[in-house]
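Translate sequence into C-alpha cells.
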Amino acid sequence: MRFSTILVASLASIGAVDASCFCSPRNGCKCACGHSRLRPDSQWSWHGDGQDGFLGREHCGSGQGRKVASNRNLGGDRFPWKCLYIRC
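Result follows.
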C-alpha cells in the first residue's frame, strides 16, 4: 500500500508539469518548464496546476513580466507578449 501511494504521488507531480501549458491557435501549446518565444496572437489560454506563468515583451523569467494565475483565458484584439516563462 505504501508503494502505491508513492507511485501515485510521483505520477501526480509529473502530470502537474506536463499540464502547465500556454495554448493558442497560431502557436500551438507551450508546455513544461522554462522559456518559450511567442508569436503575437489574440487567443491564449493558460492551464497550470500550481505553477507560476509569466508573460513578457522582451525577457521574462521568474519575477519578470506579467504573472498569470492558473487556468485563465487571455485575449483581446492584440496580444503584445513575446515570451513566456513557466516555473515548475
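Note: Strands lie at 21-24, 28-31, 34-37, 43-47, 52-56, 66-68, 72-75, 83-87.
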